[in-house]
Amino acid sequence: MTDPVIRKMDPDDRETVVQLLGESDPWRRLGYSADDWSSIFCPTPQGRDSYVALLDGRVAGVAIVKQKFLLGDYLELLGVAVWARQKGIGGQLLRHIEELVFKRTRNLFACVSDFNKPARAFYQKHGYQEIGPMPNFLIPGSAELLLRKTAGPARRKGQ
User: Fold this and answer.
1) Percent of the chain, pLDDT > 70?
2) Which residues contact 142 (CB under 8 A, 6 or more apart)?
3) Residue 34: which of 51, 45, 25, 21 has the closest Cα?
4) Looking at the DSSP assignment, which residues form a beta bridge with residue 51?
5) Phi and psi of 53, rounded to 5°?
6) Which of 36, 75, 131, 142 sits in a 20 to 30 Å window from 27, CA-based?
7) pLDDT at position 64, please?
8) Is the pTM of this model over 0.85?
């Protein structure tokens, strides 16, 4: 297996990304349909930085970042194809995003569903702190947990 290639998403990736997300949890459990993904990826998310990870020429993962969220950026979505999981794709994609984000700001935020134990462990392993729950945010009876990774305070002493 070769290392993944990470690049900006282009319109030709749309169909594969929509299929990748449509086949994956937690999004199925959260009620996202192919129509939802199709409207988000039209052909790429507007006003967002979108990246794909390619493994052996196939789209294996996707990440979307919204700039200027609170005092940092927000990782809106990080997804890895079912066939590509447990191969380090998510970690490499996340490190790529962090490298870009921490050049321009000091905080990166993300959310994870409280029931998604593998994702919670993944983010914790990569240095994210759980800030707090947002109960009944996407679906009844479940919370989205706000996460943060930081390179330090947004303002430095003397600013």
Assistant:
1) 97
2) 113, 114, 115, 135, 136
3) 21
4) 8, 63
5) -110, 130
6) 131
7) 93
8) yes
* Residue of 102 and 69 predicted with greater confidence: 102
Q: Residue 108 in contact with residue 97, Cβ under 8 Å?
A: yes
CB 56 within 8 A of CB 5: no
Burial of 156 (0-12, 13-18, 19+ CB in 10 A): exposed
DSSP state of 31: T
Report CA Rg, the chain: 16
Closest CA to 127 of 78, 88, 73, 91: 91
Query: CA quadruple 46, 57, 28, 65: dihedral positive or negative?
Result: negative
Domain ranges of the chain: 5-150
For the domain covering 5-150, report its CATH number: 3.40.630.30
Confidence of residue 138 (pLDDT cuts 50, 70, 90): confident
Task: Note the pLDDT tens digit of each residue in 8-40.
Answer: 999 899 888 888 888 888 888 887 887 888 788
